[in-house]
Amino acid sequence: MGVQPNTVVYHSLVQGLCTHGDLAKAKELVSEMMNKGIARPNIAFFSSIMGSLCNEGRVMEAHHIFDLVTDIGEKPDIIMFTMLIDGYCLVGKMDKACGVLDAMVSAGIEPNVVTYNLCF
Fold first, then answer.
1. pTM for the complete prediction?
2. What are the tens digits of pLDDT across the range 52-100?
3. 82: burial class by Cβ within 10 Å (0-12, 13-18, 19+)?
4. Which of 8, 34, 49, 93 has the most other CB atoms within 10 Å of its CB?
5. What would the DSSP string read from start to end of 28-86?
6. Is the pLDDT of residue 117 over 80?
């Protein structure tokens, strides 16, 4: 029988998998959590991982986390969009940053002063 993993264990595993780029396995674990009735990670959880990745210059990986959030049925918020824009700006990919800004507006999320300060 053994001990069943709880929310803390699942969240730790998902964070580790996301940080190390194994998003397929992370998505599997999130699905498993949902099937077992365990609360899945929220937007703030994934934002934290994205922020760390962006600060390390791993923006493409952060973008994959962003996509994972959408794949599990969550809606990225202004913080996630802004973080991704900032990450692309930090690595000099202004075209990608502008693309994320366009996607943000298309998703019905209005950029704030912080977002605009990153772009202009």
1. 0.81
2. 889 888 899 899 989 988 988 889 999 999 999 999 999 999 999 999 9
3. buried
4. 49
5. HHHHHHHHTTPPPP-HHHHHHHHHHHHHTT-HHHHHHHHHHHHHTT----HHHHHHHHH
6. yes
Q: What is the pLDDT of residue 44?
A: 86
Where are the domains positioned within the chain? 7-119
Q: How far apart are CA 23 and CA 70, in angstroms?
A: 13
* Percentage of residues in the chain having pLDDT higher than 70: 98
Residues near 116 by beta carbon (within 8 Å), at least 6 away in sequence: none
- 24 pLDDT above the threshold of 90: no
Q: Which long-range contacts link 18-26 to residues 24+ away (Cβ below 8 Å)?
A: 18/46, 18/49, 18/65, 18/68, 19/49, 19/52, 19/53, 21/61, 21/64, 23/64, 23/65, 23/68, 26/68
- Select from 3.40.120.10, 3.40.50.2300, 1.25.40.10, 1.10.260.40 the CATH code of 7-119: 1.25.40.10
